[in-house]
Fold this sequence. Notes:
Layout: E1 24-26, E2 31-33, H1 49-53, H2 69-84
Antiparallel strand pairs: 1-2
Amino acid sequence: MALLITDECINCDVCEPECPNEAIYMGVEIYEIDPHKCTECVGHFDEPQCVQVCPVACIPLNPAFIEDRETLWQKYRRLQAGTSQTTASVPEAAISHPDSAV
Length: 102
Ligand code: SF4
Ligand code: SF4
């Protein structure tokens, strides 16, 4: 299952940087969780990190996204594959200086 943030969220900003999948983002009024990115922290941590840090305990399971551990693992692996596809090829700047005829 993915998790979700309820309207008890006080926008404290604490959970967003803790998410290893970058699944948490600021929504229209409160923080939200992208259920397609949330693995319940499977693959990264034993416990959901957002739940650990939330001061008001407003991050329950999302009943609309019921997933077993194997499915969460598959989601984790899919996300990792997507991440590693980022090409870090910085084109070499071939700057040709015009001859300084001095
Ligand atoms: Fe992110 Fe983990 Fe919270 Fe899901 S449970 S939103 S992966 S920190
Ligand atoms: Fe909202 Fe809890 Fe996240 Fe703070 S830690 S922004 S209260 S969901």
